[in-house]
Amino acid sequence: MKLILFSGDHPRHLFVNKSVLEFFDEVFIVIMQREELLPEPPSDLCDHDKQLFKLHFENRYSVESSVYGSLNAHEVFKGFNSIFIKPNELNSKLVADKVKEFNADICFIFGVDLILDPVINVLPKDKINLHLGLSPWYKGGATLFWPFYHLQPQFCGSTFHQITRKADAGEIIHQCVPELLSGDKIHDVGARCVVKARDDLKKVLMHWKSEREFKGVVQKTSGRNWRGIDFHASQLRVIYDLYQDKIVDSYLSGALSSRKPKLISCINQFD
Fold first, then answer.
1. Which partner from 13, 110, 137, 257 sits 20 to 30 angstroms from 35, CA to CA?
2. Is 175 helix (H, G, I), strand (E, B) or coil?
3. pLDDT of residue 270
């Protein structure tokens, strides 16, 4: 069986996507360059918000390094049929031609921008995206941040869905959330979301290899599509100033809303 894999080059993407390779005889990989892991704070921030911005992303880098290790796309995908692209090349004729020529049976996507024409037109029927966020509540970007900002850490999770021309809006195949533990901070939960998704991805792929199809659930509400411009460093004050990054502890103690997401799964449950 043949797989086309679209992967970002951040360690979290490589941590998940390298586990896909063992399930298929032939693989073609499109690796898209992502933004810097340690971004510089915007110059127009006040000093306090600059400090929070640096703290937030340095903490993320530290946690992710300890969980995923130092993964490099060139090493992870060494020996595989692959191409490296920049974001503006994702939906190019070059990529579309290579995808069409490869003629894959299934497509898996994690870590690249929205796939549009002409590439989406030449992908196989089943083109599954791993979205770090629970659709339809949290679609778009920074979707493991916003549940913490809204004091709902229990809404941090992942969604496997068919792709469409709209972000994170396709039929849902499977959703999962990590266990929340006492002492968890925001990036601990984020990293555990990725680990849980990596583990459940194996079940998703085993289902497809058994059934050769997915019967997903149509998203009946538009939910919320979070954009990059929705985030401002001042919002980090909720996480670090008001709650000292102990929002999970507040939730587990019963001090926050206990409402839980209704998760969807349309796959066979393999041990």
1. 137
2. strand
3. 56
